[in-house]
Amino acid sequence: MKLPNIVVRILAGAVFVGLLLGGILINEYTFLLIFSVITALCLYEFYGLIEKDAKVEVPKYLNIVGGLLLFGGAFMYSSAGNCLYIEGLSPNLIPYAFYLLILFINELYQKRTNPLQSLAYSILGQVYIALPFALLTGLAFPDSWETNYKYIFVLAIFVFIWVNDSFAYLTGMTFGKHRLFERISPKKSWEGFIGGAVVSIASSLIFAHFYSDLSIPAWMGFAAVTVAFGTWGDLFESLIKRTLGVKDSGNMIPGHGGILDRFDSTILAIPAVLVYLLLLNFIGSFQ
Questions:
Q1: Is residue 241 domain-resident?
Q2: Structural domain span for residue 218
Q3: Residues 282, 176: one domain?
Q4: Is 244 among the domain residues?
């Protein structure tokens, strides 16, 4: 018996959220596992779109391995508790450096009609997807002098994005009249954006109550940065899909589209939040 689409959508969404939360909340090894898989699948979808819809051949599996090497190297560096020492990053990035060398040398032997396009799309995938997930490890190990895994900042990003998406949809459907970015995403409205942002920032007060890692204003700023850059991340992926003429990045999650569709907001929010926390730390050290 075929299940109704709404049931499939709910079940798939529940499994997806359960796996993601389990990976974040259990320990650093489940974090490493779940985000290694997410990084690989997002890269697989991205390079698949490039080959199928942009009609540009790229070394897809080599690039996926490269993304995993970057994420793994960043995890080893961050979990070592030496984030203040940039020289500690070098040994962990040696495997990724080999990937980059192989990527360029590989083009000499492929005889592609436009090797520069292949290289450009390969590097774009690394910068757009692999690098943000690598930077996520810095949020998982935020204390420069310790090796303790802390899930709270990672969890907060996803909660703020989920809350924002839900209430942006509800307020947009109810009150939306003024288009936010019609050229890229005709359905998004300013009313939806404001509604989602307000509720998401309000939800940061819950985090401030239970987690004293940041002050109340700092938590509210965290949520605001997440919402702003998460919205830009969503729009940027919409730009990619509109350019390529596709609706979804894939169909890995029944009723929800692709994996990349589920992490488009997170991809730009991660580096923005990391910079925000670094700025807070820099300012706080001089108070």
A1: yes
A2: 151-286
A3: yes
A4: yes
User: In sequence order, what DSSP letters do the residues of 206-218 get, joined into one string?
Assistant: HHHHH-TTS-HHH
Shared domain check, 198 and 135: no
Looking at the fold, whether 230 and 145 belong to one and the same domain comes out as no
Measured CA to CA in angstroms, residue 68 lies from 111, 134, 147 at distances of: 26, 9, 21
Domain boundary among 149, 171, 199: 149
Confidence of residue 174 (pLDDT cuts 50, 70, 90): confident
pLDDT tens, 103-139?
999 999 998 889 999 999 999 999 999 999 999 999 9
Reported for 139-142, long-range contacts at CB under 8 A and 24+ positions apart, including other chains, are 139/270, 139/273, 139/274, 139/277, 140/28, 140/31, 140/78, 140/79, 141/28, 141/78, 141/79, 141/81, 141/83, 142/213, 142/277
Shared domain for 73 and 199, answered yes or no, is no
Q: Is the CB of residue 189 less than 8 Å from the CB of residue 180?
A: yes
Residue 255 belongs to some domain of the structure: yes
Shared-domain flag, residues 26 and 137: yes
Out of 100, 128, 149, pick the residue that ends a domain.
149
3-state class of 187 per DSSP? strand
Q: How far is CA 62 from CA 25, 99, 125, 128, 286, in A?
A: 31, 8, 12, 16, 45
Please tell me the predicted confidence (pLDDT) of residue 146.
57
Q: Any residues with CB less than 8 A from the CB of 283 and at least 6 apart, and which?
A: none
- Listing DSSP states for 229-263 in one string gives HHHHHHHHHHHHHHHHT-S-S--SBTTTB-HHHHH
- 131 and 158 together in one domain: no
pLDDT digits (tens, 9 = 90+) for 204-245: 999 999 998 899 999 999 999 999 999 999 999 989 998 898
